[in-house]
């Protein structure tokens, strides 16, 4: 094996930094074509055993030149390498790259055969199953490849399996017997979309209009298994919707879904085999309309990706948002006809505008398009801006050009770039040709600039006109092109009542407090949602204090005659925990008791259930604790599920250490599913009353192998930093933040941000703020800890500490 110095010495103009730099990606794009991977993996049912593999990689080169493969692995994981049948003796392998020397890489077609041992990080191995997850640049941790989105390739996969296992991948099964399966060659895919899952699975299937969709799962609860026909029907409907809208048949050979315990994301759009988290797909007993809507949107989101992201893929991950914007934008359009009783304009504000504002108001705000010098940091691009602000931006484009013109442009876009790559500029060029609106100027402000406007409203002297002042918080005099509608009733300003405006809308003190007391007077449901969101933004900007905001929320939530929309009510329930926890226990108690009564009497089931969950997690009074204890003990509430009772058991264990063993033993005995039992056993130690036991849990989480099931690890981190243990948990903050570079390199795309928000979410003290702020002040960007990563800390800080 050669060192990095050897690569520098032998390679002419080859980029040798870790990861895949933009320069290397550009070089390979010009150099390589006609790529195919023939891959073989020998799987075992022992997670500690290493997985052996073989790769036969064929490609064409445009000229005689060194070629670089990516393989993030230890030296002993690389076995024999042959180029066009010739054994390569001294393989140059360092800094996560294998160099194929120029002397063997003449212009033309080549086949490289490599024996290797796969890394475990992206194989997500359990005793009874495993699954791959390669987005955005993790394929190179498992097998040698060209790990960049604009080198699309065909994949031909065969798997050797433990006895009794089944497998699913992007391609259709061409040969199968016990212990072996071969899949057909795929359409052109980027490496991040190649995937397979294998293990002990049950399955259900649906055949409609000549298409069969199979769902693989490990669920054992009959009530949850009974949901599979609905899941498959929503999936089939989504495929038909996109085929009709784009005028393009489903562009891949088959479509299945795999529902996985502990899956890191809500879903992942692998062609032919999309993966989902079991908790997002299997809903609790008596699901609310909002929960059903959320699941349908997730399915529609992942199906939309099959056209937008899979068939047409961004050239580089700085524009990963160009696939997410379509997935979320179209998910909203596709879901609306399925839920005719829901106000979808109102739901748009809850689903997209609110989370976008939540990041845009922090110091971690970003532009929609962000700079990305190296694929190793591509996961840090993902945030609420690309997922939620981008669809808000896209809806404004549709307002400017009209639906039919927009659709004509999209049809041209997918047909022009199917199985290829495209940029945002490529799309804007097409859309621009369908409209007289200046989309390029609009795009420059909304896509490439970060932040949002502050819009100050006040009444004219004659009391008949609303005066606007748009302020650029960055002091650069920027203007965001957009339109919205305000109204005046009885001298009171009601801003942005149609919800089309995006930014921080603020009023003078008299108008703001008038709005706080009168927003329910507006009868239009969308206007109400927009107004309560405006009030919340003013609370976040310290224009309302904790007591007056909490008092208003409890008062208006109790107004069951006028508050008649469950989405708005759910929004209000979601706002309550923050001011409730900012007050000391004595101040909070009257509000807790009022909320406890509402949890029993409110006419909306979703509100009753939401308040029970809220009080279980944020309540501090003896009365609330006793009420939650009774609910948990009886385990018979018609709205609560096993997951709810599990959360109650953990929360009560924190509050009732003397009863902890009984609580946890009883709850574990109630859980029959083996995967959910393992989850419970991992999290339970974090609820210990003993500091030394919690310290041991934190030490275990500092080891990457104990963070592999990320949702479970995050729940354990939450209980270590529980709001009732803030002073004892201060010791975890700095060490946990110092783990971020490793978490970013070993975890999946959402893990760094989730780690930060979970770590800091329970802290509200000045001491905690000082620790985090000192960490930020000490920060100096490095190759291992870039600016993109510290932004996750800034975003997680939010606004709550500003209220002290």
Report the principal-axis shape: globular
Name the beta content range: 15-25%
Query: N-to-C terminal Cα separation, in Å?
Result: 57 Å
Give the helix proportion (percent range): 40-55%
Query: How would you classify the helix and strand content by structural class?
Result: alpha+beta
Chain-averaged pLDDT = 95
DSSP summary: helix tally: 29
Poorly predicted regions are: 1-13
Instruction: Give a quick account of the main beta sheet: strands, pairing sense, barrel closure.
Output: 8 strands, mixed
The count of β-strands is: 26
Radius of gyration: 27 Å
Task: Going across the biggest sheet, name each strand in turn.
Answer: 5-4-8-2-1-10-13-12
What assembly state would you assign to the polypeptide chains in this entry? Answer: single chain
Supply the key terms.
804 residues, 5-stranded mixed β-sheet, 29 helices, 26 strands
Write structural notes for this entry:
- The protein is of the alpha+beta class and 804 residues long.
- Helices cover 44% and strands 17% of the residues.
- The chain is built from 29 helices and 26 strands.
- An eight-stranded mixed beta sheet has the order 5-4-8-2-1-10-13-12. Strands 15-16-17-19-18 form a five-stranded mixed beta sheet.
- Strand 12 and strand 13 form a beta hairpin.
- Helix 8 packs parallel to helix 14.
- The longest helix has 19 residues.
